[in-house]
Each structure stands twice: as C-alpha cells, then as structure tokens.
Amino acid sequence: VVRGELERHNLRFDAHEARGPGDAQTTARAAIRAGYSVIAVVGGDGTLSEVAAGFFEDDNGERSMSADFPTPINSQAALAVLPGGTGNDFARALQHERASLSPWVARLLAHLRGEADSPARAIDVLHGRQAAGEQPARRRSFICLNAATLGIGAEVAGRVAAQANTVRRLPGETRFALAALAALLSWRSRRMRITVDDKSFECGTNLVAVVNSAYAGGGMMFSPEAKVDDGLLDVVTACDLSRAAILREITRIHRGGHLANPRVSVRRGVRVLIENLISADALPVEADGDVRGHTPVEFRVMPGALRVVM
C-alpha cells in the first residue's frame, strides 16, 4: 500500500525490510548519515523505538549513547509513523485516536510534497541508562518513545513477548490478560528507592512506569495526562498492593482507572533514578516492549529531540 502510493505520486524512495533485532536501527542510522531527511516506518512500537534510536550516534560516534545525552546525527531529519503493529500506541498518542494506516500515509505524502498543513513536530524522547554495575562507558543505554516499566509491568511485557509466536491469533488484550495472570502468580514486591528530580521516596514496588506518552503496552494508559511535548516524564508508582489489588488495577489500567487507588501515584520530572535496596531484588527494565537491563536505572527526558511527521 505505502509503496504503491509513493510510486503513484512520483516520489523517490528506497525501501528496506528489517530482518532481525537491531537491523532497523542500523539501517535508519546509515540512511540519515547518507543524507536522507525522512525515515518512514511501517511497523509497531518496538520497531519505531528501534528506528528512533538510529537518529542518534551509536557507541562508535564522536559522542556515544553513554554520554549524558545521545547526539543527533541530523537534527532536521524526521520520523514518519506508518502504524502496522499490534498496539500502535505511539501513533495513537500523537493523534488521540486509534491508529489506522491510511491517514498516516496521507500525512507522509503531504509532508513529502511540502504542504504547509503537514509539518514535522518536535517531540520528547525518553533516554534510559543502567546506573551502576558496569564501567560508565559500558552501561546499557537506550531510547524509548512510549514508556519504560519495572516490576510486574516488565514481567507482563516479557511474557507477552515470549508468547508472541504461540498465541499470535489471540487478540492483544487477551494475550495481555493471560500474561498478567501468569506474572501475578509468581510475583513478589521489591523495595526500591525512587528519585524524581531531587525528591526521593521508598516503595514496596509492584509497578513503576516512566511514561513519555499517554499510551503504552497495547493501549494501557499508565498516565492519561502524559504528553510527548511537555518536556517532562510522568512517573507512575503502585506501592504495597496485595495480589488481589494488583489484579484489580491491572484490569483498570487500559482506561486509567488505576489512578483512583490512593496507593497509585503520579509524579513528574526530568530525571528519574530507580534503585533496588538489596542486590538480590534487582528488577528487569522493559522499554517499548523490549527488556533493556535491570535496576539500578536512570531515565532522563530529551526535550524536543526527535522530529515526527504529523
């Protein structure tokens, strides 16, 4: 569909099919270095996140992902979203409606033709980095567009990914519910220290979500008021909940109802540090569907760091 529309409008393009983990990022980075100004992505949120990382220098660049912030290769290059995944949360957050491919193709065509009503908009990016456990230059660093989760949220994401090939025919929300139930049966909370900017607190952690956009994880609304262009991260914590309470809140998270629980809170800031108080209690970190390491982990917002075709 996309190729046909580009050809019909006599627009020049090159196409590449990602063939494995990291391929989309490598291809996007090479294309931007070669002078391409628009990178259009047909895929889901994981692919978008991977391509977004390709807009910045890698560890072999003059400044690396292990610097304070990744360095953009070309700050004027733009990402074009063509939703083709299961959740399409990022596209939904940008337009505040369920994403379908056709209107996004129309936006891309209008942008490539230089129409004034289809600009590229600067949005924030979440930058995460393992905060300890390795030499500074070797700590894992990553880019995230929607949200990073720790605790049961990361457990659920890992199980959903593991089940992708065995339960592919089931609806996304059904797969999520099955994964949530399995994760809940084996879950135990861990005590964490969470610092948002300069304010710290401890929490018997069931869930932490560091949120850049209103939707993540297939329609979950960790923080319905989150905005991709406000220069802030929303930090959602669920502390000291029983298993029954966790199950109840998980079922309400797709509409934001979990925020009515007084043990669930939202804080906002530009820097977030999450530390396990006991080494054995390190939590896995999930970002846009992929496991990205473990605690301790630091997140920072990169305001207006990525241009997206709107």
Kindly describe this structure.
The chain has 310 residues and is α+β, with helices and mostly antiparallel strands. The protein has two domains: 2-124, 3-Layer(aba) Sandwich (Rossmann fold), CATH 3.40.50; 127-303, Sandwich (Tumour Suppressor Smad4), CATH 2.60.200.40. It has helices spanning 2-8, 23-33, 45-53, 89-95, 101-112, 152-162, 172-185, 243-252, and strands at 38-43, 78-83, 120-130, 141-144, 147-151, 190-196, 199-211, 233-239, 264-269, 271-276, 284-287, 290-294, 297-309. Strands 1, 2, 3, 4, 5, 6, 7, 8, 9, 10, 11, 12 and 13 form a 13-stranded mixed beta sheet that branches. The longest helix has 14 residues, at 172-185. The two termini are 19 Å apart. Mean pLDDT is 87; it is low at 60-66.
Write a concise keyword list for the protein shown above.
2 domains; 310 residues; alpha+beta; Rossmann fold; globular
What does the oligomeric state look like here? single chain
The helix/strand series, from N terminus to C terminus, equals HHEHEHHEEEHHEEEHEEEEE
- Kindly, what is the distance between the CA atoms of the first and last residues, rounded to a whole number of angstroms? 19 Å
User: Sheet bearing the most strands, described?
Assistant: 13 strands, mixed
Low-confidence runs of at least 5 consecutive residues: 60-66
Alpha carbon gyration radius: 19 Å
CATH topology of the largest domain: Tumour Suppressor Smad4
Question: What's the average pLDDT?
Answer: 87
SS-derived structural category: alpha+beta
Look at the structure and give the CATH class of the largest domain: Mainly Beta
Percentage of β-strand residues: 25-35%
- Count of distinct structural domains: 2
Query: What is the second-level CATH architecture of the largest domain?
Result: Sandwich
